[in-house]
Amino acid sequence: MTKQKRIYARPFIKWAGGKTQLISQLDSLLPSSSDGEDFYTLVKNGFYTTYIEPFVGSGAMLFYMLQRYPFKHGVICDCNEALINVYRCVKRDPEKLIDELKALQLRYDSQVTLDGKKGVYLLVRQSFNTVVIDVSNCYQKAAEFIFLNKTCFNGLYRVNGKGEFNVPFGQYESATICDADNIRLCSDVLQRVDIYCGDFTEVKWDMGTHSFVYFDPPYRPLKGKDSFTAYNKSGFTDADQNRLYEFFMKGAVEGSTVMLSNSADDNDTSLRDKYEKNPGIYVKEVKARRNINSKGDGRGEIKELVIVNF
Questions:
Q1: Burial bucket for residue 224 (CB in 10 Å: 0-12, 13-18, 19+)
Q2: Mind listing the pLDDT tens digit for each residue in 196-215?
Q3: pTM here?
Q4: DSSP code, position 49
């Protein structure tokens, strides 16, 4: 009798800067004890009990960490209200969300031309931008979010100064809008996760010695390069990067094990220098592939910083 391969939950959306491609490199950097216990053993034995992610995005690290390691509890946050609404709907009632997604899948697939599919896309985008999320329509709005993510250009999430989602249609002949099995698996994982919406400084985090905290903020733009930080209408500024630095250091001082990803800029090392000047803070590098760029020569392998206190 052959052993059935376990199927794992994976992110239900695509996200600029998502960590799926970097997970193996990040996993190799996880801490071990002075006695030689690996990270799995530390979590299993209760040294780490809580996984925290203040910028959850697509949740690639969240789903990996909570399925690979036996954390008792997870806490996630993001300032994107529409994104957090999706997480809450997936957790609370996946079947209701799946029904909404099936309707959108049918609506998209019934269009035989790209112009017809584009028409559906534009109508859903208009609804997403004009109808405010509330208790009565939260599953519809969550389904619209996933639909737009799966059918827009490159799965990008971008808003204008009014906070309106403005990514163009992705010209896809077909798209998997409703992946019911994966949504159910994600819901199972999220049952032990507390979900918050807001700025990373507003949440009352349990950042103590038994917490592992992974920060994946909007990256600091590379000097002299175009970069994308418009996940919300205010963007993520240098002042926000400074607030994050203070928050990261506070967590480290309070005893949390902290890991932070950000851009590596050979032309401006000020971000690296700011963290590295602190005793007990170490800066490492990983290699990533940039895929979201409208110009082909803007894609390729780049370096990223991984900043840790272990």
A1: exposed
A2: 999 999 887 878 899 999 99
A3: 0.92
A4: -
